[in-house]
Each structure stands twice: as structure tokens, then as C-alpha cells.
Design goal:
By secondary structure, the protein is of the alpha/beta class. It is built from eight helices and ten strands. The structure holds adenosine-5'-diphosphate and magnesium ion. This is ABC transporter ATP-binding protein.
Length: 240
């Protein structure tokens, strides 16, 4: 078996005495699409924030492509992140939002232009390049957020409930679109959701989280047909 591309070992995090991540281990292969599925408050966002460097774990190891990323500033980690609420810059156009990270990293204008064109095509928003976020639908805003996070060619993409604020129809079409883009780029991805249908339809592998633990992981088929605990069964909708 290949060495894993993203390796988390014994990640721990407490907030004010309460344990939010309790020795989380997670190994992800390059190009894999892994979903963290679990109830609100189980630690999903905290785990992503630790990987992205938005918060530091109290203990544990984090390796990305063999590089130890613990303690590095977010910009040096080569991690892209998309949040539930779109978090676009309201005063920048679609183009400006996608270009932002490239500008921050000192890419020259020609390079920024070429990359932005590529990304606008990837998320199919060429005709909206000059629009401001407020004029876009929720689904379009999330496609911009996705393009923006991919602009700097991250090694891993973290998607924190990117579909949860969208209405049902858009949510379904974006599921497919995200997966197509992820496959096209062979992008190693952690997708967070509390929606089991999303997890079942999108994932190579699902990790069920509860109370700061990964309680079971496996393919969608395995988790659905062979849940090890009642909690997993309930969460996977294996029985009604
Ligand atoms: P999830 O994304 O699974 O809903 P979170 O990772 O956001 O869960 O939160 C897990 C727990 O950690 C919750 O009980 C939450 O209140 C707590 N928590 C998260 N961030 C902070 C913080 N910055 N300060 C204090 N408590 C926090
Ligand atoms: Mg969350």
C-alpha cells in the first residue's frame, strides 16, 4: 500500500477544558475524496481548522506529502478551504476573488490572468467574471469560493459543509460538479457534512465522527450495510 498523502496521528484539541478532538487518526491517499460525517458539535470543523492552520491542535502529528505541517502558518501549508458561508470578498469581483490568493503570493499579472481563466472555465463562470458576489446565487458563490481555494494549487482541499446553505436542487447539482472537478484535478479532498445522503453519493470513503472521535470508517457501501454501532446505523440511515 502507498504511504498516505495526508496523515493525521493522535490529533487532540480542547477548548476551556472540554475535549473536542480526542486522539483523531486519519490517513488519506492522494486523490481520495474522504467525507467526515457526524452530528453538529462533534468536532468536524475543528479538525479541518487544525489541518488548515486556523487553529493549532494541543497534540498530535500532521503530515502532508511527507511534510510536517504542524505549526506552519496557514499560507505555507498548501491547503485550500471552502466554508459553509461563502466568505467571498464583497468588494472584489468574481475575477478579483479568484485572483486574490495569487496576488498575495506575488504571482505576476500574466500568470494570474492565465490561472484565473483556467479556474473560471473549471467552475463555468466565465460570463460572471466582472460580477460582485452580492449579484450571484448561492451556488455560484460557492463555485467562486471553490475556484478561489484552488487558485494557489493546494495539495489538499478542505470543504466544510459547502452545500449546507444551498437549496435542495442546487445542492444536488453542485455535488456532481464538485466531484467532477475533484476527479479532473485528482485533488485530495476532505468533505465535511452532516447529511448522510451527500456522504453516500459523493465519497470514496466516509469517516463517521462522534464526540471528537472517528467511530467507524469505510466505503459508503460498508458503512451502510455493516454499521458497527447503533449510532453509525442511525447516522447512515441503515434502518428507519
Ligand atoms: P462541528 O463542525 O462538528 O459542528 P465544531 O468543530 O465546530 O463541530 O465544534 C466542536 C465543539 O467545539 C463544539 O462543542 C464547539 O462549541 C466547540 N468549539 C469550537 N470552536 C471553539 C472555540 N473557538 N472556542 C470554544 N469552543 C469551541
Ligand atoms: Mg462545523
Amino acid at each position: 500500500m502507498n504511504a498516505s498523502y495526508l496523515e493525521l496521528q493522535g490529533i487532540r484539541k480542547t477548548f476551556g477544558g472540554s475535549t473536542v478532538l480526542d486522539n483523531v487518526d486519519l490517513s488519506i491517499q492522494e486523490g481520495e475524496f474522504v467525507t467526515l460525517l457526524g452530528p453538529s458539535g462533534c468536532g468536524k470543523s475543528t479538525l479541518l481548522r487544525c489541518i488548515a492552520g486556523l487553529t493549532e491542535p494541543d497534540g498530535g502529528r500532521m503530515l502532508l506529502g511527507r511534510k510536517d505541517i504542524a505549526g506552519l502558518p496557514p499560507r505555507s501549508r498548501e491547503v485550500g478551504m471552502v466554508f459553509q458561508s461563502y466568505a467571498l470578498f464583497p468588494n472584489l469581483t468574481v475575477y478579483g476573488n479568484i485572483e486574490y490568493g495569487l496576488k498575495m503570493r506575488g504571482a505576476d499579472k500574466a500568470e494570474r490572468h492565465a490561472r484565473c481563466e483556467e479556474l473560471l472555465a473549471l467552475v463555468d463562470l466565465q460570463e460572471k467574471r466582472d460580477a460582485y458576489p452580492a449579484r450571484l446565487s448561492g451556488g455560484q458563490q460557492q463555485r467562486v469560493a471553490l475556484a478561489r481555494s484552488l487558485a494557489v494549487r493546494p495539495k489538499v482541499l478542505l470543504l466544510d459543509e459547502p452545500l449546507s446553505a444551498l437549496d435542495a436542487k442546487i445542492r444536488k447539482s453542485l455535488r456532481t460538479e464538485i466531484r467532477e472537478i475533484q476527479r479532473k484535478l485528482n485533488m485530495t479532498t476532505i468533505f465535511v457534512t452532516h447529511d448522510q445522503e451527500e456522504a453516500l453519493t459523493m465519497s470514496d470513503r466516509i469517516c463517521i465522527m462522534n464526540n471528537g472521535h472517528i467511530v467507524q470508517e469505510g466505503t459508503p457501501e460498508t458503512l451502510y450495510s455493516r454499521p458497527r454501532t447503533e449510532f453509525v446505523a442511525r447516522f447512515m440511515g441503515s434502518y428507519n
